[in-house]
Amino acid sequence: MEFMKIFQDASVVGFLLLFFRFAALFIAVPIFSHQNIPVQIKAAMALFFTIVFYPSMPALEISITLPSIVLAILSEFMLGLVVGTILLLAYHVITFAGGIISFMMGFSMASAIDPQSGVSMPIISQFLSLVGLMVLLSLDLHHWVLLFVDSSLKTIPLGGFLLREDLFNYVIHAASSMLKVGFMIAFPIVALSWLADVIFGMLMKTMPQFNLLVIGFPIKIMVAFVVLTATFASSMLIVKTQMIEAFNALEMLF
Questions:
Q1: Can you give the residue range of the structural domain that contains 243?
Q2: Phi first, then psi: what are they for 113, rounded to 5°?
Q3: Cα-Cα-Cα-Cα dihedral of 223, 228, 230, 232, to 10°?
Q4: Is 204 helix (H, G, I), strand (E, B) or coil?
Q5: CB 58 within 8 Å of CB 153
Q6: Which of the four pLDDT bands, split at 50, 70 and 90, describes residue 65?
Q7: What is the pLDDT of residues 182-239, one digit of tens each?
Q8: What distance, in Å, lies between the first and last C-alpha atoms of the chain?
Q9: 12-16-17 Cα angle (round to 5)
Q10: Residue 192: what are its φ and ψ, rounded to 5°?
Q11: Comparing 171 with 209, which gets the higher pLDDT?
Q12: How many secondary structure helices (H) and strands (E) does the chain include?
């Protein structure tokens, strides 16, 4: 009972909710959610930024009761999940494109554990994902997240975030946009691979001794690497644009 009396102070409850807001964002948002960052480090970062932002925290608007505190904590985790989902849908444009490219190059079986998400993905997707992570660092996304928290404290009261219909509509639109933009990034390689298949088919009809496995596949891989190198800068520019648009879309939360 003495322990529960601690949470009857509004400043203590506000500090706790602010900590969970940072913790939820560090769990879900790209860069901070990297699997190679230990959970202890994420918790320490959340605690540090909670102390830094605590003086600018607005007055608590919820009632100091156990059910209200539990609902407020769930609300903060929901806010972090929504922000992370919006940003991850924009970020995974490049990994989706890398999966298509790997399949067309014949590298779909060459997979490795992605250090960002901790799941197995084709090696081309992993390479593009790591480069995309450097693009996010060049955009100062980690600083943007802190600025977002500062702005959210002024407009979204602690424990007062609620899901709205427009958020669901935007997530559905962002998911379809991820598929569309990802295929657009991979389309040059897909188109040239299909063209190479047509040419190889014509060669096999005119030259039966043509060995597709020995000659055709290495040529397809070489062509794919050349096109990937030629379109690499534009692909990263698309990822950068998608991330900026996704972050600007977070204004709908305010």
A1: 2-253
A2: -75, 125
A3: 180
A4: helix
A5: yes
A6: confident
A7: 888 888 888 888 888 788 777 777 777 766 667 777 778 888 888 888 888 888 888 8
A8: 37
A9: 120
A10: -70, -35
A11: 171
A12: 10, 2
Tokens standing for 56? Answer: 């600018």
d(CA 52, CA 66): 26
Confidence of residue 2 (pLDDT cuts 50, 70, 90): very low
Contacts of residue 184, defined as CB under 8 A and 6 or more positions apart, other chains included, come to: 238
Angle between helices 165-206 and 66-91 (to 10 degrees): 30
Output the six-digit token pair for 59: 């007055």
Which pLDDT tens digit goes with each residue over 101-127? 888 777 766 555 555 555 666 778 788
Q: Is the pLDDT of residue 149 over 80?
A: yes
CA atoms within 13 A on the CB side of 121: 22
Q: What angle, 0 to 180 degrees and rounded to 10, lies between the N-to-C axes of helices 10-28 and 66-91?
A: 20
The tally of domains found in the chain comes to: 1
Helix (H), strand (E) at residue 113: strand 111-113
Specify the residue for token string 């400043």.
Answer: 11
* Per-residue pLDDT at 120: 64
pLDDT interval class at 35 (50, 70, 90): confident
User: Closest by alpha carbon to 152, among 30, 18, 254, 27?
Assistant: 254
Q: Which residues contact 176 (CB under 8 A, 6 or more apart)?
A: none
Contact yes or no for 85/2 (Cβ under 8 A)? no
Q: Cα separation of 110 and 125, whole Å?
A: 10
